[in-house]
Amino acid sequence: MKARQQSGGDFKLVPAGMHSAVITGLIDLGLQPGGMYSPAYKVAVIWHTPGALTDDGRPMSITQTYTFSMNKKANLRKHVESLFGKAFPDEKTAADFDLKKILGRPCLINVRHDSKGEKTYANVATVTPLMQGMEAPSFSGDYIYYSEEMPPQEKAAAYEQVPEWLRERIDNQLQPEDSLPAEATATLNGTGGSIEDEGDIPF
């Protein structure tokens, strides 16, 4: 579950440690090759971290790719539950959860740097709600939301907002007939939820 943030060149990693953040992107990557494992549906989540700045003073962001599953053991479910500070009451509630509800959600993330060979990656190790009384991080840009189940015209417009490296993964996704995972996967299109939703935990 490596974020595609690689050291070297002109790219600067989000520093390791705790950061206040807001979720600004949710991208359905479709069915992706699994390497040593079976192909699986994947989803990318983007966090905006205004307290971490690039060399020219711009706020940084970090992207994490998850297997698109709300199974009890799935990392995506664990991070969603941690984000709201509450476990799903049952499997049906978890399976029916509209993942779009996490867009715009402020939180604290713990960024960890992991090395593999000569490369270093920034990973989101943990996600928690903001501490009581903590000011929510600001974000004035556009939220990125892309789902394979969008209507064609809306999907095409959303695709243009997706970062280029994630568009490449969308373009190269497998077709379901290539290899279907046995486990049922989550869906971005649930019942309600928007970036304006605030207040009560939605499950």
Give the secondary structure arrangement, pairings included:
Layout lengths: L16 E16 L7 E14 L5 E9 L7 H10 L6 H6 L9 E11 L2 E10 L15 E3 L5 H8 L4 H8 L32
Parallel strand pairs: 1-6
Antiparallel strand pairs: 1-2, 1-4, 2-3, 4-5
Task: Explain what this protein looks like in three dimensions.
The protein is an alpha+beta fold. The protein has one domain (17-171). It contains four helices and six strands; from the N terminus they run βββααβββαα. Strands 1, 2, 3, 4, 5 and 6 form a six-stranded mixed beta sheet that branches. Mean pLDDT is 85; it is low at 1-10, 180-186 and 189-201.
Question: How confident is the prediction overall: mean pLDDT?
Answer: 85
- Which spans of ≥5 residues are poorly predicted at pLDDT below 50? 1-10, 180-186, 189-201
Largest sheet: 6 strands, mixed
Compute the number of strand runs: 6
Domains (count): 1
Q: What percent of the residues sit in helical stretches (DSSP H or I)?
A: 10-25%
Approximate shape: globular
Series of H and E elements:
EEEHHEEEHH
The N- to C-terminal Cα distance equals 25 Å
Number of helices: 4
Using the CA coordinates, give the radius of gyration: 17 Å
What percent strand? 25-35%
Features:
single chain; 203 residues; alpha+beta; 6-stranded mixed beta sheet; 4 helices; 6 strands; 31% strand; disordered C terminus
What's the short version?
By secondary structure, the chain is α+β, with helices and mostly antiparallel strands. The protein is 16% helix and 31% strand. The chain has one domain (17-171).
